[in-house]
Amino acid sequence: MKNNKKGHRTRKQLIAEKEAASKRLVDQANLLKDPLEALPGFHSYTTPDGTEIKLQCHRVGDLDNDKLTWIFSLMERNMVEYYKASSWGWNQSSKRKELTEPTAWYLIATMNDELVGFSHFRYDMDFGIEVLYCYELQLETKARRKGIGKFFMNALEELAKKSSMKKVVLTTLKKNTDANLFYEKLG
Ligand SMILES: CC(C)(COP(=O)(O)OP(=O)(O)OC[C@H]1O[C@@H](n2cnc3c(N)ncnc32)[C@H](O)[C@@H]1OP(=O)(O)O)[C@@H](O)C(=O)NCCC(=O)NCCS
């Protein structure tokens, strides 16, 4: 890379170098076999009523059809009305495409072998910095208000730290009051 007249790297060059370093961190994270393996404290969680929840991490490409069908179904059951009420509207095929992009990772929670919740997340660049982007956090109704959502978010934060991501980023729909109260509660 060329330097300026004084032999210093220009601001533009510094920004490009920083972005390239961030991109390398994202690529490294995406090469992991199982990012959750390094976090043994997040493989299971016991709810206040004594139920054990197990958490596993998978690349989207490693999910079987049953899990994918359940992911699409839970997503739609939980969110379709909020999407319809938003400026985005609901588009089933584009949502399914987003959920199955090759860079998608999933945390999946089971309760006695029953699928009860998932988070779709990605290691990605966002406004020039390396982030863990939480695309979805979706729980079955019966699994809510037991601390499982908080457990997922803590796991995502630790996964982000472990791979040197700068932030955990997410988007919520304004009308989704429950989700907004939940995220506010977590600070
Ligand atoms: C939003 C969601 C993930 C929250 O998960 P959860 O397991 O029910 O939440 P938790 O039990 O971990 O709650 C964590 C904290 O948030 C608070 N909280 C959770 N849901 C809340 C609600 N609806 N209203 C007010 N506070 C709420 C809890 O009181 C708790 O506080 P505490 O730690 O002081 O006890 C879950 O309700 C869900 O899957 N909703 C449907 C899908 C959805 O909207 N996803 C978010 C899309 S962005």
Automatic annotation (TrEMBL):
Which major enzyme category is it? transferase
Residues in N-acetyltransferase domain copies: 67-187
Whether Cytoplasm counts among this entry's keywords is yes
Cellular component terms per the entry's GO annotation: cytoplasm; nucleus
Alphabetically ordered keywords of this record: Acyltransferase, Cytoplasm, Nucleus, Transferase
Q: Which SUPFAM superfamilies does the UniProt record give?
A: Acyl-CoA N-acyltransferases (Nat)
Q: Tell me where on the tree of life, at the top rank, the source sits.
A: Eukaryota
A Pfam family of this chain = Acetyltransf_1
Tell me its EC number(s), please.
2.3.1.257
Care to name a GO molecular-function term for this sequence?
histone H4 acetyltransferase activity
* Location of the protein in the cell: Cytoplasm; Nucleus
Chemical reaction(s) catalysed = N-terminal L-seryl-[histone H4] + acetyl-CoA = N-terminal N(alpha)-acetyl-L-seryl-[histone H4] + CoA + H(+); N-terminal L-seryl-[histone H2A] + acetyl-CoA = N-terminal N(alpha)-acetyl-L-seryl-[histone H2A] + CoA + H(+)
Q: Can the keyword Acyltransferase be found in this entry's annotation?
A: yes
Q: What is its main location?
A: cytoplasm
Query: What PANTHER family would the database entry show?
Result: N-ALPHA-ACETYLTRANSFERASE 40 (PTHR20531:SF1)
Give the family per the record: Belongs to the acetyltransferase family. NAA40 subfamily.
Protein name per its UniProtKB record? N-alpha-acetyltransferase 40
Organism, as annotated: Aphidius gifuensis (Parasitoid wasp)
